[in-house]
Amino acid sequence: MSAVFVWIETLHGKALNSSWEALGAGRMVADKLGVPLTALVFGENAGAVAAEAGTHGADKAVVCEDATLAVFRLEPYAALLSKLVSDHKPKAVLAIGTSRGRELLAASAADTDSGLLTEATSLEVQGDGSIKVVRPVYAGKILSEAVGSAAGTQFVALRARAFKPNAADAGKKAEVSSVPAVLAEGDIATKIDGFEEAVGTVNLTDAAIIVSGGRAMANNPKDAPGGAADAAVWKAQDGFQNTLKPLAEVLGAALGASRAAVDAGYIPYAHQVGQTGKTVSPDLYIAAGISGAIQHQAGMRTSKVIVAINKDPEAPIFKMARYGIVGDLYKVVPALTAELKKRLGK
């Protein structure tokens, strides 16, 4: 059986929304190659997720609900994926490039002696069946083209929010088949006792709109409750909560930050965007008080529309912004928030 495989990543028995983006990319590749699109769903509630994959464009689905796959562990997941690839020789295996997706595809590509392309922001199927991808390199400063080999299975990890999911059609169904696990519990070295979930963690990766603040959030400190020594930190925290957060709420956006703001203690690390933080590709990225160092650009360069607000007209962020506002963010952002409330009727 020749096909295009797409791994559907799940958490607590539900598919990650970004996995439907991978299925959308897979649909395009499968149509170009003239082969079926097969969703791979492992773990808890796999059957229900496979049925949902059918509504998102999958022709077939392969599921395994074995207890060894209840939570993600590389050994059993990679062993099963590698066996499916060896048995069925798919043209390509796609997945969103989350930390789990990259790890799984890398392990299976190595197991099956196949090539792996990562961070793909666009795909093109060549005449010989090879897949050409465009991917950012050197912290996003340039775009590189890479081509897989049509002679074997091509593994491709996709950048989240770079591809559109197929429109859901409740009338479509996938042909579902079940397979057994490859490894028994006793053969798996990694054991998971449990999880401790972070409370209030922001999901920047999937956000369509992000409002971010930087070091400039510490400008013009007011009278801080803790005295002059804490004035800058207090003002920055007040700025994120009372200046940027209202704008984010009006837009239904996630709240981001530069490394400088995180290092200074203004906002938790979960909000950091950049080379050492989250890599994001929202439809709209608003950078308030962020100068735009290359490390920050590496994390948000692929945003579709960038709006920069900074009082320094020479700030590097303006070179990559589609729209720029030179001014004091403490005056610009509240005015922008008020106008958006008026226009959006909030």
Question: If you had to describe this structure to a student in words, what would you say it looks like?
Answer:
With 346 residues, the protein is α/β, with parallel strands linked by helices. The protein has two domains: 184 residues, HUPs (Rossmann fold, 3-Layer(aba) Sandwich), CATH 3.40.50.620; 136 residues, Rossmann fold (3-Layer(aba) Sandwich), CATH 3.40.50. The protein has nine helices and 17 strands. Helix 3 packs across helix 4 and helix 5 packs parallel to helix 9. It is elongated. About 3% of the residues have low confidence.
**Number of H- or I-type helical stretches:** 9
Mean pLDDT: 91
Strand order of the largest sheet: 7-11-6-1-4-5-12
Reported CATH architecture of the largest domain: 3-Layer(aba) Sandwich
Q: Identify the overall geometry.
A: elongated
Tell me the domain tally: 2
What is the chains' assembly state?
single chain
> Structural class of the secondary structure composition?
alpha/beta
Q: Which keywords apply here?
A:
346 residues; alpha/beta; Rossmann fold; 2 domains; five-stranded parallel beta sheet; 9 helices; 17 strands; 31% helix; elongated
